[in-house]
Amino acid sequence: MSAKNRDNKNRWRNITVGFRVSPEENELINRAVALSGLPKQEYCYRRCLNQDVVVQGNPRVYKALKTEFATVLAELKRIEAGKGVDDELLSVIELISIILGGLKGEDANGRNKKRNDYYQMYLRTTDAEQSLSKCTDNSIVNQDTDFKGYEQSFEEMQREILRQLDPSYLKTVSMTTLYDTVFEVQTPLIDGLLQRGTYLFVGSPKVGKSFMMAQLAYHISTGTPLWEYKVRKATVLYFALEDDYPRLQKRLFQMFGAKETGNLYFATECKTVNGGLEEQIRGFMREHPDTGLIIIDTLKRVREAGGADYSYASDYDVVARLKALADSYKVSMLIVHHTRKQKSEDIFDMISGTNGLMGAADGAFVLSKDKRTSNNATLDVAGRDQQDMKIHLVRDSERLVWNFAKSETEMWKEPPEPLLEKIADTLFSESDRWEGTASELCERLAVDIKPNVLSLRLSINASRLFRDYGIRYQNSRTHDGRKVSLWKETEQTA
User: Taking the domains of the chain in order of start, what are their residue ranges?
Assistant: First the structure.
């Protein structure tokens, strides 16, 4: 019988104990288990019986520490945007600190203590019944020398966190690091129309903004094409703050009939940006991690009453905080707002408020009509990662949906990149994966390009390589040069 089915006195464990936990509690338990290096069952025995939990330095613990460090560093970036430290994050940081101190051979007061063969450290000080080294199903035991590299990595990550916590810390990236980085592929929610990021959606009162928001939300939540644009299916959170549920019900039925979707969620009230909205959105994201679009209709409903305080700084701040939240989850956010009455040659200058709103956002959509009673409208689009365009729309007077008429600006197409096509044809005709050095890749492709230049071109075009050919790209520096990894992956499984 397996050793895990016997206790430390060789008694048969024949009773099952179970209990309910929240998703957040389960996550914390799994973190602690991973950081301990123990099997989950053994960890629970020891914690419940108030026995020692002994952390043993090994690859499993090292991997868990790296994972948690990544989480901590991500949260630190969020904190930089002006948010406080989450209590659960503090618990994780404290746990990591204790483990690192133990791995370095320090006691709770920072004094050195004798290091044993397994870099043992006690999270709880009680009478131990069984040493971890005696557990037959414990993770891999390595020699002292095997952990020198791990310990160095721990210390480097620890220094990085301390640097970021320093008030004088300035985050910088060298040009070399920038060139070596393969950035995550960010596919748009709607090709050529809606990128990931935070956008203002602006129009005069009663122009049809809420109907347009409902239309966008429905198409994204169902994954059905919008006009002539491809849509990627995702969960949508719609703050319809100027509506109630009966009005929403009537509007949606008029627009889409009995075709319903379970991926579209509505809220008719919420907290303000300074009063807890961010926490509400984070709570929703934990329950619905596949969320791709958040709509806030309208901006006025989620900002504090300011009157004269509606300055450039306050306008910039409220959108910047919402943008930081959207960026942290890599989602699209549409913030509905109104235009001013005063006309302007530049339609984007008609956005009510200061230029701080536009300055903080990634772009803007402006829905406008020549005549209030007309069913014809134009949708002007501008953004950092978005081609400027003007779309002509016609409103269906019966269903109240916006139909595509024409676009004055054709979708911009990137110039051809023969290198990507050659990679797809040469490397993936018979295999779904290729690995080697950059020099070997140059030789394999038979191209007259320096290896470092080839790596740079692939880093810059990684998104396109995946989008057009379904090929992922990674590179890393090794003693033998740059190691290149290329593999097939469909967008649906990404």
Answer: 3-165, 197-407, 414-493
